[in-house]
């Protein structure tokens, strides 16, 4: 026997949780299916715990920087408060009871288990069958994936889901993958005294960002004692019960712990998408600008391939909800997607990189300025003032199509640049703005003056 509802949401990442609540509050009968924890990766294994770690590691770095500038400091790192804050305050010991009750309070029926589409408009969870008259919303997210390195699969390595449960900083750590997860966690542990080596197969860290961002992070990391190996092809991996070894053509690397941060795979296999004639082996689900995969099937979040960020999942949730409710409103637009890598210096970026803009055939003008050369950067002092602002202008239209703000508070400075790219503010208008003195964001004015 099946149970009839209006909508079934499979997966409650940030967007799915939000959408289920909004749909129920709009008066629909909603079932939200979750196989792990309501809220998804972000609050329990990703954004929130890792940013708690980053905050702690920034405090250590700033305390160390006080020496010679504001007195003398002796810093003794201790992971205990970090672990306590993550387990007691942030994740409630990885218990989602409060989130489940919050969702139920909005009228959502939360069903724990693996959801699978067993027919058009039909979802089965551990033998329970739900018929969704309006449709199904997918928000199943991603899982950590390991590259096909010989011997790696069976090793007790860490992924992001283990690292957030760390009870201490290891003596030494190998980080396989120098993308966002890899660089954020590498710096965190290094500041807690761990000897860290990043092993990245691409020629640079943060390969999706501007090359200037990669260069900045590599320089800062090297100065901070983190070993960076780019263009590194790992041929095999092993563990002898005490330490991990990664073999490279020019020798072995060994450490107490291995963190695999080499990308994610979308949770879309074994979802029953064949009932909608959708390819389950795709890297992302194709969605239109209302987040429809096809009639009666919507998808939001990482699985849409539009940017694996919590803010993307939430942004798409609002649009999908309107679509499901048959309401009008702005369609999804991805020309101004912001992203922040929470290293120190922080790397904030929005829209297109210079290369992406050129590849699109735009008539590109670039404007750059270095933060240490700004008044605020100089006042802030070195180390800790490294960074730059880079603007990517569509010179024909006279608007910014991309920007990077790297440096202290780079993610906050990005706010102004994201507004400019999002609203397509004419560069001429940006030039007439008054930029407060002496802020970091005042460097935007210098970057605008450099456009050429
Ligand atoms: C270490 C790390 C740090 C990050 N830091 C940031 C950050 O600072 N800022 C930021 O914006 N983003 C960050 N991200 C990315 C962010 O976590 C994701 O983009 C965000 O969680 C949104 O994902 P989602 O909505 O697609 O779903 P997810 O959060 O992945 O949740 C999907 C949910 O669906 C459930 N599910 C899957 N399949 C099924 C099924 N068949 N049946 C039932 N339930 C199912 C899963 O159990 C999961 O709970 C980080 C990621 C990582 C790994
Ligand atoms: N601050 C944030 O917003 C934030 C933080 C963390 C993660 N995220 C999101 O999560 C997503 C996943 O992050 P991620 O860092 O896991 O993935 P990623 O795809 O960004 O980076 C993975 C890196 O691993 C490298 N790699 C792959 N195979 C390798 C191998 N065999 N040897 C060495 N290196 C290898 C890749 O070249 C790449 O640089 C990101 O795309 C991002 O959107 C966001």
TrEMBL record:
- Where does the FAD/NAD(P)-binding domain start and stop, copy by copy? 6-315
Task: Show the Gene3D superfamilies listed in the entry.
Answer: 3.30.390.30, FAD/NAD(P)-binding domain (3.50.50.60)
Q: Which family does it belong to?
A: Belongs to the class-I pyridine nucleotide-disulfide oxidoreductase family.
Q: Which cofactor does it need?
A: FAD
Native organism is Actinomadura gamaensis
InterPro entries named among the record's database cross-references: FAD/NAD-bd_sf, FAD/NAD-binding_dom, FAD/NAD-linked_Rdtase_dimer_sf, Pyr_nuc-diS_OxRdtase, Pyr_nucl-diS_OxRdtase_dimer
Q: Where is the Pyridine nucleotide-disulphide oxidoreductase dimerisation domain?
A: 337-447
The name under which this protein is listed is Dihydrolipoyl dehydrogenase family protein
Q: Which SUPFAM superfamilies match?
A: FAD/NAD(P)-binding domain, FAD/NAD-linked reductases, dimerisation (C-terminal) domain
UniProt entry tagged with the keyword tRNA processing: no
Give the enzyme class: oxidoreductase
């Amino acid at each position: 026997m099946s149970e009839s509802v209006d909508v079934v949401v499979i997966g409650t990442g940030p967007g799915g949780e939000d959408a289920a609540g909004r749909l129920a509050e709009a008066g629909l009968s909603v079932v939200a299916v979750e196989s792990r924890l309501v809220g998804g990766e972000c609050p329990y294994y990703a954004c929130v715990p890792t940013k708690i770690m980053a905050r702690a590691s920034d405090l250590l770095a700033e305390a160390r920087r006080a020496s010679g500038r504001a007195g003398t400091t002796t810093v003794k790192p201790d992971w205990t408060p970090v672990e306590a804050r993550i387990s007691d305050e942030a994740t409630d010991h990885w218990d989602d009871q409060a989130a489940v009750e919050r969702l139920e309070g909005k009228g959502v029926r939360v069903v724990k288990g693996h959801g699978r589409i067993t027919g058009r408009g039909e979802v089965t969870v551990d033998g329970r069958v739900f018929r969704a008259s309006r449709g199904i919303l997918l928000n199943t997210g991603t899982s950590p994936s390991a590259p096909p390195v010989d011997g790696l699969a069976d090793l007790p390595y860490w992924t992001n889901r283990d690292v957030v449960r760390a009870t201490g900083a290891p003596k030494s750590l190998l980080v396989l993958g120098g993308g966002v997860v890899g660089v954020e966690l590498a710096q965190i542990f290094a500041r807690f005294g761990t000897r860290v080596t990043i092993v990245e197969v691409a020629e640079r860290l943060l390969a999706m960002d501007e090359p200037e961002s990669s260069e900045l992070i590599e320089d800062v990391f090297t100065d901070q004692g983190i070993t960076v190996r780019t263009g590194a092809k790992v041929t095999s991996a092993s563990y002898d019960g005490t330490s991990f070894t990664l073999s490279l053509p020019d020798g072995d690397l060994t450490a107490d712990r291995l963190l695999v941060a080499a990308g994610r795979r979308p949770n879309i296999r074994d979802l029953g998408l064949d009932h909608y004639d959708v390819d389950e082996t795709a890297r992302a689900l194709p969605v239109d600008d209302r987040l429809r995969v096809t009639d009666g099937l919507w998808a939001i979040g990482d699985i849409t391939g539009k940017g694996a960020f919590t803010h993307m999942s939430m942004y798409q949730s609002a649009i999908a909800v309107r679509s499901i409710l048959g309401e009008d409103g702005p369609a999804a637009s991805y020309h101004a997607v912001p992203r922040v890598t929470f290293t120190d210096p922080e790397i904030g970026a929005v829209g297109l990189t210079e290369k992406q803009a050129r590849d699109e055939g735009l008539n590109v003008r670039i404007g750059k300025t270095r933060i240490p050369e700004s008044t605020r950067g100089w006042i802030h002092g070195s180390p800790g003032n490294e960074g730059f602002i880079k603007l990517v202008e569509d010179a024909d239209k006279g608007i910014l199509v991309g920007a990077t703000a790297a440096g202290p508070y780079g993610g906050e400075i990005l706010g102004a640049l994201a507004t400019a790219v999002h609203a397509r503010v004419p560069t001429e208008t940006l030039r007439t703005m008054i930029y407060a003195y002496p802020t970091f964001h005042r460097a935007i004015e210098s970057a605008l003056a450099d456009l050429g």
